[in-house]
Amino acid sequence: MPLDLQEHLQALCAAPAPSGHEGPVRAIIQDAWAGRADKLRTDALGNLIAVKRGSGPEPRRSIMLCAHMDEIGLIVAEVREGFIRTASLGGIDYRVLLAQPVLVHGRRTLKGLFGAAPPHVARSRDKYPAADDLWVDVGLPADEVSALVRVGDIITVDAPAVPLKGDYLAAKSLDNRLAVAVVTLCLDELARRDHAWDVVGVAAVQEEVGSYGALAAAYQIAPDMAIAIDGSWGVQTGVGDDEGFRLGDGPTIARGPNFHPLLVKALHAAADDLEIEVQIEPTPGHSGTDAWEIQVSREGVPTGLIGVPMRNMHTPAEVVNLRDVTRAGRLLAGFIAGLAPDFLDSLAWPEAATSKERDA
Amino acid sequence: MTDVLRELCEAGGISGDEGEVRALILKHLEGHVEDVRIDALGSVLAVKRGTGTTGLRVMAAAHMDEVGMMVMGFDSDGTIRFSAVGGLDARILPGTRVLVGPDRIPGVIGWPPVHLNRGQETMPIDRLRIDIGLTKREAAQKALTPGDPIIFASAFEVLGPTVRGKALDDRAGCASLLKLVQGDPFPFDLHVAFTVQEEVGLRGARAAAGRIRPDVAFVLETTACHDLPQDPDEPDQTTITRLGGGPAITVVDRSMVSDPRLVRHLVRSAEAAGIPHQFRSPQHAGGTDAGAIHRAGAGVPSAVVANPCRYLHGPYAIMSIADWENQAALLRAAWQTLDENVLTRR
Known about the structure:
The complex is a heterodimer. Chain A has helices at about 5-15, 25-35, 140-150, 175-190, 210-220, 260-275, 290-295, 320-335, 350-360; strands spanning about 40, 50, 60-70, 75-80, 85-90, 100-105, 110-115, 135, 155, 160-165, 170, 200-205, 225-235, 250-255, 280, 305-310, 320. By secondary structure, chain A is α+β, with helices and mostly antiparallel strands. Chain B folds into two domains: about 1-65 and about 165-345, Aminopeptidase (3-Layer(aba) Sandwich); about 70-150, CATH 2.40.30.40. In chain B, α1 crosses α4 and α4 (about 170-180) crosses α8 (about 320-335).
């Protein structure tokens, strides 16, 4: 069945699945990947791992594609007088949650919102209230709330995806469901193309709380090479082109200590061949993505990162350009289809070659 | 039961652009009133004939407009500059979904990622932008015109005993007034006014009262409520009203001292009929159309009956369905026994 990217992304984003509670989104991904991979399994932490076998000779090399499927979310910390105090799961920005609608996943799903004092009674409009002073209101009497909601229940923002003009889509959780969609697109294209390498697609859990899913997945898979896919900061009001990347100008290829320089080079070469516009994302240290953990898994893994520029990251209104998502999928598929069985040799450090010559 | 309320809340009508709400009001008034007119400002005025027991000219008002925003211009990147229409706290805007312009184009209000934006306190509204997916100023100029309305994109939801929605202020009052108009006649001719521009200074009510010239006026409103768990080190905010405590009778607010004879009559009527009610605490800011009506002409004794709503002037407020139903019930009870005697000074 042909893949409708917007529909796929909207379904992915609609799933309420913060770190550690990825079940609802995993089910959707399982359905999307089932027909596009040879083998699917869910590991001990909840990572969904899809293997699509390559045509190269045994022992075949494998490339791991890592897209985290968890979203930032909240967890019930206290129920008092029918109102709910929250703690965060991942990098929540409480400022942007003021007055936002949420879903409280208690014994049944309750619609509510983060209550904001109206201007009539607001104590100060000069600063944001502390997280401790914010309460979720589900509009029910206190005894009913106590019966339905417990400490530890999860809360997600209630923000359906909204197609904007052009190729833009606004939704919650585009970080990082967009990357899941990139992997789906890649698997979909590879179904019609020959590729020598095994491809292992991972929908990883718990990135937003410390990349714990990717850590465990990389250990099990022991890939020869890995590419993480994640959102990048987009240029927007308040974020200049010194900090972000333009939406619509293509995915980014990150460069810095987290990434194997020759893999970065090979990705750029693939983008050139495929005539896909890409941007360079200089990353001086921790990339803030699963790539950071994967790179140092076991004996070390040559790792790359494809970014998709996104506005309003970590808000209920993340915005991406769908063409950038499509291009990232095409880039990965084209890169993988072009991998020779002995591609790994081309990642050998140039200094190693010269020292060998010297030894000889 | 809440169908009309849903329809009214989901309609867009910032101050000065109440057309969509006006059309709904006119539709629901049809067959229940006479002398329907739209005045010079856009308020809907009509008369519900009474039994003629008393010749008192009674005015009842609810405002059609809602707090929202207006398109002010466009940046070179195609994003939209905007300003508040009515009392909006800019802190609640980032990350919010909106509908822009007469075609209700979906958009979102941006906010830089937290990673690049720690420590940022409030961002003034003139630095916030709306993204509708256009990337050039020229494209935005083609799609929209400065002055176009912007409303919250908020679906109306029933949450059990409460409802959650935008514009409950004051579509809840409009819906109550429609219910009263659609019911049995009162002892007097009831002059109803669905007013415009309350949120920018009680403008519609002033002109409406100028035309109706009532002897006495009732305003059907919503009022602030913040009965959340309180910080023990701060003044208690729960005193203003409590959700589920019944409709709130205003004794005094920033715009008016309610006429004590009317307040007494409302309380006695509520007690006689066993209708829950409460008093809105005078300690908090806020005013209503009554602030304009009571000063109209030679002066008009006025009172306000308001539904407590949490989170007014935002994308979603929460209101008790029982409070809302009791607003109409209380006024119905009070109006059935309203005559000149109520206004007699002792």
